[in-house]
Write a structure and sequence with these properties.
Elements lengths: L26 E5 L6 E5 L5 E9 L3 E4 L4 E10 L7 E13 L3 E10 L5 E3 L13 E4 L9 E9 L7 E9 L3 E4 L18 E8 L4
Length: 206
C-alpha cells in the first residue's frame, strides 16, 4: 500500500495521526474534530451505499409456456457488507397481452453460484410461486397499463450479485412497453413506454 504526495507542494508539512487501535470490521477512517487526527467511524444503519440500474426503452413480446428474461431489466451489485440489504425497485412502463395474466419473478445469481428466486410467495401445493402478477387490460388491445414492485433482499454476501426479471405469460404472449395491437398511430394510447430495474444497497437496518 502507498500514500501519494499532493499534486502541488503545500506551504508546510502535512501530518496525519493514525488511531491508536486497528478498529473493527466495516469501519472506516475519517477526520476527527481535530483536523489531521484520524479516527474510526461506522456506517449509520439504513444509509444508501450504492445504486445500480438497468433500463429497457424498447419493446418486447414474450411467449407463453415458460419463464423468459425481460431484456434490459437486470443489474449487478457487489455488496460492501454481509449485513447490507438490497432494495429492488421495478417499474414496468406499460404492458398488455393475449392472455389473462402473467407471472413475474426476480432471480438473483451470485458470482460463481446458482440462480435463486427472490421475493416469491410461499410454497402452496401445486401452485406456482411468483414475485408478482400482472393482469391483462381487458378494455381494448389498444391500451395497457404500467406496474411497479419493490422487494428488500438480503444476499448475506460480499460477492457480485446479478439480479434480473423474468416473465411467464399464461397464454400466447405478453407485451412489454407497448400495447397488444402496436398500431403505428399518433394517439397517446399507441405510445411506447420505458421500464427500469434499480438496485439500492442499504447499510444494516438493525
Amino acid at each position: 500500500m502507498a500514500i501519494g504526495a499532493p499534486a502541488t507542494n503545500p506551504a508546510s508539512d502535512l501530518e496525519l495521526k493514525l488511531p491508536a487501535t486497528v478498529g473493527t470490521a466495516n469501519q472506516y477512517l475519517k477526520n476527527s474534530s481535530t483536523p489531521g487526527t484520524l479516527e474510526f467511524g461506522s456506517l449509520s444503519a439504513g444509509k444508501v451505499l450504492q445504486v445500480k440500474t438497468g433500463t429497457k426503452t424498447g419493446t418486447q413480446s414474450i411467449g407463453g409456456g415458460s419463464y423468459s428474461d425481460v431484456g434490459g431489466m437486470t443489474a449487478t451489485i457487489t455488496p460492501a457488507s454481509t449485513d447490507s440489504r438490497i432494495l429492488i425497485i421495478i417499474a414496468l412502463g406499460r404492458m398488455n397481452g393475449s392472455t389473462d395474466s402473467a407471472g413475474f419473478k426476480i432471480v438473483r445469481t451470485p458470482s460463481g453460484g446458482s440462480a435463486i428466486d427472490v421475493g416469491i410467495g410461499d410454497a402452496a401445493s401445486n401452485r406456482p410461486r411468483v414475485s408478482f402478477m400482472a393482469t391483462r387490460w381487458d378494455i381494448s388491445a389498444s391500451h395497457g397499463t404500467g406496474l411497479s414492485y419493490s422487494w428488500l433482499d438480503h444476499p448475506n454476501s460480499t460477492t457480485a450479485q446479478a439480479y434480473k426479471l423474468q416473465c411467464f405469460p399464461q397464454g400466447d404472449y405478453w407485451q412489454i412497453n407497448r400495447n397488444e395491437q402496436y398500431f403505428d398511430g399518433s394517439d397517446i394510447y399507441h405510445a411506447v413506454a420505458a421500464s427500469h430495474f434499480t438496485l439500492i444497497e442499504v447499510s444494516d437496518l438493525s
